[in-house]
Target: Sodium-independent anion transporter
Amino acid sequence: MNSFLQFLFPFIYWLPSINKDSLKADLLAGITGAVIVLPQGVAFATIAGLPPEYGLYTAMVTPIIAALFGSSLHLISGPTTAISIVIFSTLNTGGVEPGSAQYIQNALTITFLAGVYQLAFALARLGVLVNFVSHTVVIGFTAGAAILIASSQMKYVLGVEVERGSSFLHTWVDIFHQLPNTNWAIFAVSMTTLVTAVLIKRFMPKVPNMLVALIVGGILAIALGGESVGINFVAEIPARLPPISSPDFSLQTFKALGPQAFAVALLGLIEAVSISRAIASKSHQRIDGNQEFFGQGMSNVVGSFFSSYAGSGSFTRSGVNYSAGAQTPLSAIFAAVILAAIILLVAPYTRYLPTAAMGGIILVVAYSLVNWGTIRKVFETSRSETSILLTTFFATLFLELEFAIYLGVMLSLVIFLARTSIPDVVSLAPMRDPDTGKPTLVKESRTHNLQECPQLKIIRVDMSVYFGSANHIQNRLHYISEKQGIKHILVIGTGVNFIDMTGAEMIEQESDRLQEKGGGLYFAELKPKVNNFIHRGHFDEHIGAQYFFEQKKDAINKITTVALDHVMCQSCQFRVFKECDEPPLKGGTPLEIIPIEDYRNKT
Model:
């Protein structure tokens, strides 16, 4: 009961830890976060095709709910670039004008549905699902989203007309044809804003670069003549707290927006959990994936009733929050409250904010989205990861965004299954002690150039034995027995985490086949979980309990002294095992050959 209460009301357990010092640290971090999110909220709402105030509403409501019901001490939720572009690409179809009342209600409905999906995942304890989404998928999707975001802003940067709802290619065709019509005053404002933001971030990193750049862009726009030279300005943001709103609960709308909401939910969870874990690796906090699912779900469901569109964790704001010294989730709540106070004071001045300056800022945001360092490492180290990244990247550009996410996830799972279906089957052999010359530790024979026994093959399977890998392992066993002529095979199970029914049935078949040849398939050092499965399924009874050993040294001793052809051993020039140097394997009195099936009964 206590664990369930902690799941529903996690804030009850961290509120008592607040003290004077943590309160001060959280307040200072909250002030920093509020200043940073002010221009970001406006920019992200613009990307989503919503009025600027909706980004700020989201930055007020979402962080509070996510902080109360999540597990991370430092995660700051709110509007994000990736989700904003998904919202825009989803709703910018069907003739609904961005920013219109219908468009806004559709955005709120997607937010509500995404929150419901996330809550369902949390209650079903499916937090582990996010582990199946390759980080490379997120990198590729984010890079593609950055290109789309930059493309969507070019009309504001250049002051040209681009057909609404055009595809990526058609957008750039329109831009190319409209280049002669570029408004140079608008372009100057955009580039000045962009360069100012970049220079401040480079040389004065503690100064809020986006906020200062927007102010510089606004001053330049007015100095150039403002609307008289074609420069448009953002509409004045209402000086009020987030108003109550309502999603569209009609069944028809749910059916139409349900698939898109699922993509938003999935992307939001990936972002939130990934960012939480990244920050936790520095703060040494343990992150509960299910709790984060619950916190994100609650924030989106509640936010949809307070004019907030879908949000998730923000890496920039979360990183700044941690660096600013935040100690509890109260810092996120402080940031939201302080932002609300700032909006009430500065809202009338937003009418001096040129859309060209917003375009310049969004180009900076788009560029910062691309993780250049990780992309370079992926290209240098892994072909399969490169294929996942490029597939997701191009799918993001040329397909609907939700399908790009699904395609990337599916491809990463296919590649994962392909990798695990061809496990390493490593040949092992004893290594002789350099001082005594006696065989001691069992090592990889190829790596250490070790001689192997011509009658007994020792292998280690470095993968679970399941339906995907069973065929490859079976082919390897066939090769050993048929091509190498070895009918005694010892499997060291230290690398096997689990065996499924297909794998167990394959082992039974190979055991029967080798026993018919007068040999056997032996097992040593299986993990307890694997041993329990074999025992519960009575597979050990079918194969024979005498073929299973706790230690490889016991297995080698019994197989060499009981099961091998000792006549062959006596004439063998390879003295691989320590038993090879003892009677009767090295010669002398012949040993009574006892079938291994009867060995344990006799001993």
Notes: The mean pLDDT is 85.
